[in-house]
Amino acid sequence: MKIKYKIALYYTLSASLMLIAFAVLAYYFSSKSRRAEYMERLEYRARSIANVIIEDGHVKVDLLRKLDRTTFQDLYKETILVYNPEYDLLYSNLKDTTIRTHRSLLDYIKQNKLYSNIKNSGEQVGVFYTEGDVSVIVIVSSFDKYGFQNLQNLRQILLIELITAVAILVGVGYFFARKMMQPIDKLVQQVDKINASNMLDTQVAVKGKDEIATLGANFNTMLQRLGNSFDLQKSFVSNASHELRTPLAAIISQLQVTLSKERTKEEYQALLTSVLEDAENLSDLSNGLLQLAQSELNQEQFVFDNVRIDELLMDMANLIRLKQKTPGKIDIQFIKVPENELLVTCFGNESLLKVLFLNLIDNACKFSPDSSAHVSIDFFTQYITVQIKNQGPVIPSGEINKVFEPFYRGENAHQTRGHGLGLSICKKIVQIHNGHITVTSTVEEGTTFTVLLPHL
């Protein structure tokens, strides 16, 4: 069932139940009020009869008969019974009818002075009336014809009103539900036209400040993110394919040329050295792609623990020597000595942090003329600060904002082996650890990468 139909249905049901409850209450209280009013009227009638027939200390039934034949009777199907305290019937307006009143009823009226009851034929009231030394029991029964007719009319009116109101509620509910769902229907129509090719060029219309407008704004933001992700993925696949194809093509062409004829021992050694270099290049690229894929994962998918950043950096020298063919020089120093080891301890993933600093220090050594890197450690109120400096070529100002993009290589990096993945991996790792990474490059100071990581 569509949402607009559900809204209309729930609205109609809830409103109808409220109307039915009000109608039932109105009918119930009207019925109760009719009964109380008619019982009071019968009691007044019974006392009036008793007051009329007692005169001068005697019960004058003849006067009651005379009044009964003229104007005294004004109730529908009225029955009047008058008894003395000994339960002898003094008067009855019933003719040709055997009158039987249970003795227990007369005892009850005599003892309690008042009796009222509802029977199938109508209401009945009995009173024990005393005036002077004379007492009588008067029982009056009648059927409230006009009261029940009014109740029946009220019931019919309420029923017609309920049916009419429900019909109107159905129409009104559907109208308002359709009106409320129009923005969502438009949103659905616009979303249906969006695909991977026009994601960045298409946005849903946002009007107003309600929840639907918020949904549309959030949807536009999601489209922007997805579009950027798709573009990044396309660029990544294209660049990765190009980077993988280059060393493979070099290896294949060298092997084909070499196998075309017999070669000397020195030529075979040169070939194997070149193929080995291309294979190492291909291995570095594969490792870089794997690290980049891992850095795209969420923080929840890594095991985090307390990591001493200073100890981690101390191990970088050995790792750099294993990675580079020429030994690099790494100078590590503290700007100020920490009084507490927690000031240089980060809650993070040790393997990712090793990749982060290994890439940064390796880059610094590769681009430095003397294969050296200067690393400084400092700490502040919330962050550990690690700066990696080298005196290599200056990064042009127009390329500073692009160095963290995957596969991007600046003009000064074309002569150096690499694939442009290291810095993008570093940025992802820093983001996973809720940190920041920046780069500055000047002729006087050289190139400096600054990493901020929150400490414990």
UniProtKB/TrEMBL annotation:
InterPro entries: HAMP_dom, HATPase_C_sf, HATPase_dom, His_kinase_dom, HisK_dim/P_dom, HisK_dim/P_sf, Sig_transdc_His_kin-like_C, TCS_sensor_his_kinase. It holds the Pfam family HisKA. Coiled coil: none annotated. GO terms for cellular component: plasma membrane. Keywords: Kinase, Membrane, Phosphoprotein, Transferase, Transmembrane, Transmembrane helix, Two-component regulatory system. Residues 239-456 form the Histidine kinase domain. GO terms for molecular function: phosphorelay sensor kinase activity. It catalyses: ATP + protein L-histidine = ADP + protein N-phospho-L-histidine. It is an enzyme of class 2 (transferase). It is found in: Membrane. This is histidine kinase. It comes from Chitinophaga oryzae. The lineage of its organism: Bacteria, Pseudomonadati, Bacteroidota, Chitinophagia, Chitinophagales.
